[in-house]
Each structure stands twice: as C-alpha cells, then as structure tokens.
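Schema walkthrough. Field components (list of strings):
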Amino acid sequence: MNAVSALGELLVLFGVFFYFLSALGLIRMPDVYNRMQTATKSATLGSLGVIIGTGIWAVGEGLHWGWITKTLVIAVFLLLTNPISAHALIRGAYKSGIPLWEGSVVDRYREALEESREEGEE
Amino acid sequence: MMGINVYLALIAIATLLSLYRVFRGPTTVDRLVAVDIMTTITTGLMVLFALLYRRMIFLDVALVYAVLAFLGVIAFARYLEGGI
Amino acid sequence: MGEAGKISRYLYTVIVLFIIWLFLTSSLDAQELEIGFILSLIVAAFTYDLFTSRGLANLHPRRIAYAAAYIPYFLWAMIMANLDVAYRVLHPKRPINPGIVECKTVLSSDVGKLSLANSITLTPGTITLDVIGDRYFIHWIDVKDASIEGASENITRPFEKFLKVIFG
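Field assembly_structure (string):
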C-alpha cells in the first residue's frame, strides 16, 4: 500500500459517494427536471472520481502506465457527452409536454415559444 | 486490494437504487433518465472490474459501452421530441 | 473570423487524432507510432471539413493558456455544484425553488456555445434546456433572479470571460 494507490483509492471512494448521491437524488426529487439536475451532475463527477481514481490506483499497484491514459480518455469522453445527453433528454421532456413542478416560479421558455408562434402567425 | 470488492458492492447498490426509479417513474422520461444514470454508473463499474481482474483490455469494453449508451440516449431523446 | 485554409485545418485534425491515438494505445513503440500516424493522415483527409473551422489558430499559446486555467476553475465549480446538490438532496425538507430563466450570451462560435452549454449543465443548480441563437433557456433549481440580465450575471458571466478567449 503506497501513497499513489492510497490516493487512487481515495478518489474511488469519493466517486462512489457521488454515485450514491445521484441515485438518492433520482429517488427523492419531485419532478423529472429536478431529478435530472441532481442526478446528472453527481453521476458525472462520480464517474470522474471512480474512473481516474482507478487509473491512478492501477499505476500505484505497479501495472502499466497505459492505465492512466486510457482511463483519462474514458473520463474525458464521459465529461463531454453526459451534459449533451442530459440536455437532449430535458428538451425531449419539455417538448413531450411534461409540466413543471407546481412549486416552480418562472417559465421563460414557454413565453418565448408563444412569442415565436405569434410572430409566425402574423 | 481488498477494498475493491467493497466499492464494487457499493456501486452495485447505487445501480439498484436507480432501478427503483425505472420501475416507479410515472413518465417515460423519468425511466429514461434513470437508465441514463444507470449506464453512467455501470461504466464506472466496468472500469473497476478491469482493475479487479488486472486486464487492460476491459477498459476498451467500458469505452465502447459509454459510446453506445450515449448514442442510445440521444436516439430516445430525438424520438421524444417527435422526430427521429 | 472566417474559415482557415484547408492545409491548416487538415494539420490540426491530424495533430488531434494522433494525440488521441497516443492516449489510447499508450505505447511509444515505433511500429505503433507509424501505424497511428498513417491512420491519422487517412482519417483526417475524410473528416477535417466537419471537425474544425479554424485550423491551427486553435493552438495559439494564449488560447492554450486560458484553456489550462479554465480546467481547474471548472473542476472547482463542479465540486462546489455537487456539494450544493448534496445539501439539497440530503436536507429533509428539499429546499428547491425551480424555474426556467433566459440568458443572453456574447459568444458567437458554435463550439463556444456548446462548451458554455455543457459548463452550465455541470455547475451549480442549472441545466441548459434549449439554445436559440444567443438566447439560452436554463432550468435553475433555485431561482434567485428571474430577469434576463440578473440571470446572465449569475450563470453565464463567470464562464464567458474564459470561453471568449478560448473559442472567440
């Protein structure tokens, strides 16, 4: 057990905590938009922690240094694509007509959509 | 290296927790979000498995899995918007 | 800022593809390097038109320096966002106050808008719903200011000063 593997293991633990948080957010939040808020963010940070942590841990265990570069590629890929899929899903949710939670305070998007519709009719 | 089994078990429990939302979720989008989170978590699980078996080739499996999951979610989201 | 010349765009694509190859194979063996270089040349010939519109101008030292400064700033914002999320999820009363606000941006390039949207999605309590021209529609979990200027001040300003230099 050297310092490098300890650092990697710590990162993995950190990531696992955020994985749990995202699953909890998925269960506790009241509507689909808020669920996406909590779940996407924590799952992305959790993946960063677990994946890069595993790379560092493997190098600390004396495995090939390719572990760290390959895990970095996976982590960067997830970091780039996760927000895009969240964005596509939340837009799909809005377009398929799921209403906002009743406690929501403002909805500028509907105002803008109605504006553009009125302009189109004129 | 013993700790790795504990982390694997914890991640598996997190996956099961999000599975709850797949069963319960009142709308399709709820289920889809839960599946998206599950695939993200599963990618991390695969990377940890690669370390458990000390096979670097399993990392490629995780990478391809991440790519396919992303494509699947995008396709479903396009479908929800009403044009595929 | 128009499109860069074909050669500059082609070279930039080759460089990026070769770096990705290096990371994926993680080997400095001569054979691997040769094959990777040849494959980068071939793939770049097909994809440079889609891949970049500014070519080697992306590798300007000022851009790279700002990008290097942006990464730790962004990671820090992300960790703060997650602690915020942790507070909201674990608090027994679920202190949320959601709504959709509108923001204006000063960025003009497509890649810049994409990175701003991604950064917004991953940082405190906000997720990008749609982008129409320079208007961002953002779902905010804790609405502090529903006006366009106030929301822009809170959400997009901190990232724009980096992204304006990196992506123009």
